[in-house]
Amino acid sequence: MKDLTTGPVSRHLLATTGFMLVMMVFQTLYFLIDLYWVGRLGTSAVAGVSVAGQLSFVVLALSQMLGVGATTLVSHAAGRRDATEAGHVFNQAIGLSLVTGAVMLVVGLAGLDAYTRAMSADAATAAAARAYLGWFLPAMALQFPLGVMSAALRGTGQFRAPMVVSTVSIVMNMALAPFLIFGWGTGRPMGVAGAAISSLVSIVVATAWLATHFVGERAWIRFSAAEARPRMPTWRRLLGIGLPSGFEFAMMALYQAVVYTLARPFGAAEQAGFGIGMRVIQATFMPVVALGFAVAPVAGQNVGAGLPERVRAVFRDAALMATGVMLVLTIAVNLWSRQMVQAFSADPAVVRAGTVYLEIIAWNFVASGMVFVASSLFQALGNTIPSLVSSATRMAMVIIPALLLARLPGFHMTWIWILSAATVWVQLGLSLALLRREFARRFGPGSPAVPLAAAGA
Question: In the chain, where are the structural domains located?
Fold first, then answer.
């Protein structure tokens, strides 16, 4: 275990963010390279993988549900130096992750055809989505125990091991993908299915490798079959913290589904442009997402140790870091959005759709970065319901008007992008107000309040 309750807060944030950023750079590089290779197969292939990728948001929602609960409770136990409680929480989370992964796999395979038909603009896109998901669904099922193991290690302040394992497995995925997609060396090209198989292989390797960090005498928390047996009080604690975060990501999946549905009349090019734009945003957001992953365990250990001043310092330093980074990225995307999209598609219609999307959405980058920081602090405080409230408010302000606007003559997807960008600023204001209230509730009315001024509020 690494103690995050002593020493400069900013140093802990930078160090842990650095580990997470390395991992996310490679993960995002994989996403972009994978999209690059799939882009060589044509617009239908890109649109099909994008449609298939929407299920990733569902998996992300569920894995976030488990990971957030594990990180929070393990970090609180680590702050109290309670290895027994940390091990109990970890094993309960592993048991829950195995059950969740199995259920997701069965449901996903059963509904595969219905989902791809409903979400695709044409038959070619649906066929590509089916070919990809047939192999990618098992990979997504393994994400649950893999995510719990990574979350538990982060809660104990150990960021290096998940970073090394993830980076090596991603490099393996990137190297394997073109051989399977195009049949290099085998003469048997597998198309989009090859991209999914390479992901499955790399996740199997990562899961087995990361599991070795929870066995042996040197492990601070260890696997235990007895501790993994379902215990409803602990599951309720995990889900009480994790469910609101999971619902946040589920709402993001709902938003993506609504966007793809509204984009269907505009054709596969509009869907592909949006899919590429989302991948570009994943790349640009990785510094602030890495920072968010760092905030939760650093603040969480200090919450467990009962050190409100250090929790306050975590928020202040993270807020300044996020604002600076996202300002730079806002400028970069506005200057080079077309080139970013052209790297993945030569279709003029796809490039046009993706460029318009990025140029508008970039104006919510600073607000989005601060929302990430606020959400991570809610996780550290052990109450993610306020974060869910702010996210649900924003989703309602986007989805309901979007469905109504789609009925109007002359409707265009640009209207949705403007609405989406504007509502993030509303979400930020609500998140900061709720965060101030939660901090006072957690540490008492006499404790120092979270400094909203640090966020420019």
Answer: 9-455
